[in-house]
Amino acid sequence: METRESKGGVVLSGRLQMLADMVMPGNRLVDVGCDHGFLSIYLVRAGICPGAIAMDVREGPLAGAKRHVEAQGLGDYISLRLSDGLSAYGAGEADTLVCAGMGGRLMERILRQGMEKAYGLRELILQPQSEIPQLRAFLRREGFLVTREEAVLEEGKYYFAMRARPGTKEPFSADADHDGGNNEFCLYDLYGEHLLKQRHPVLFSYLRQRRSYLERLGASLEEAGSSRAGSRREEVREETARIEAALAYYG
């Protein structure tokens, strides 16, 4: 389902509704990469957030967001800013940061460049589109504690989101080896500690789908039989072993 406007506000897509449901009521919002501003509009109209700052690095989406905010009569409650990451955000202006619709590496860069501002927030709600294990490992190393994770399957695509808060750094670097090993931290970074422990049904669906794909790929590589295929077969075996370790959480 696509996000759309209605007379009473906006109706969010499943992936955006998942983010909205993770925001602590009463918190002021800063939405980095706000696109057309629908999340801010929804949260303010629903009374979940008393106000919001909607920011985007692109002028086009920000202009669209401005039109939507004005159409909903929320100009006094939602501030719109052209911003690369957190550059136009002032420390202490918000309690909750939402960042979605971009890769994990970009999110990491945004947080690194605005780390002092990020540490001043009460919660970070992140929905990376790629490089999710790397982002989870980064948060852990930098002292952010992931307190909740959610997942949704929408129009054939899996979306994963996490809520984190500033905490204390782990007493070890513990960079998970994503190319091998099925240790606990590797699995947590790959698939999400809370999703695994809660036996989240959407993660279960993702793991089974991924395992099925790897089985087909492995069979194809066996037929190929080249040296390059041999290297790829080993990668497939290692990933399959990690998926089996994750599926063990589901009994």
Quick tags:
about 250 residues, alpha/beta, seven-stranded mixed sheet, two-stranded antiparallel sheet, 10 helices, 9 strands, elongated
Q: Topology of this protein?
A:
Layout: E1 4-6, E2 9-11, H1 14-22, E3 29-32, H2 38-45, E4 52-56, H3 59-71, E5 78-82, E6 96-102, H4 104-113, H5 115-119, E7 123-128, H6 132-141, E8 144-154, E9 157-166, H7 184-191, H8 193-197, H9 201-224, H10 227-247
Helix pairs in contact: 4-6, 6-7, 9-10
Please characterize this protein's 3D structure.
The chain is 45% helix and 22% strand. It contains ten helices and nine strands. It has helices at residues 14-22, 38-45, 59-71, 104-113, 115-119, 132-141, 184-191, 193-197, 201-224, 227-247, and strands spanning 4-6, 9-11, 29-32, 52-56, 78-82, 96-102, 123-128, 144-154, 157-166. It has a seven-stranded mixed sheet with strand order 5-4-3-6-7-9-8, with helices on both faces. It is elongated. The protein starts with a strand and ends with a helix. Residues 171-180 have low confidence and may be disordered.
The major β-sheet equals: 7 strands, mixed
Helix content: 40-55%
Measured between the Cα atoms of the first and last residue, the distance is 32 Å
Q: Provide mean pLDDT, rounded.
A: 91
Number of strands: 9
Coarse morphology:
elongated
Structural class: alpha/beta
Report the β-strand fraction as a percent range: 15-25%
The tally of helices reads 10
Low-confidence stretches: 171-180
Order of helices and strands: EEHEHEHEEHHEHEEHHHH
Oligomer: single chain
Rounded Rg = 20 Å
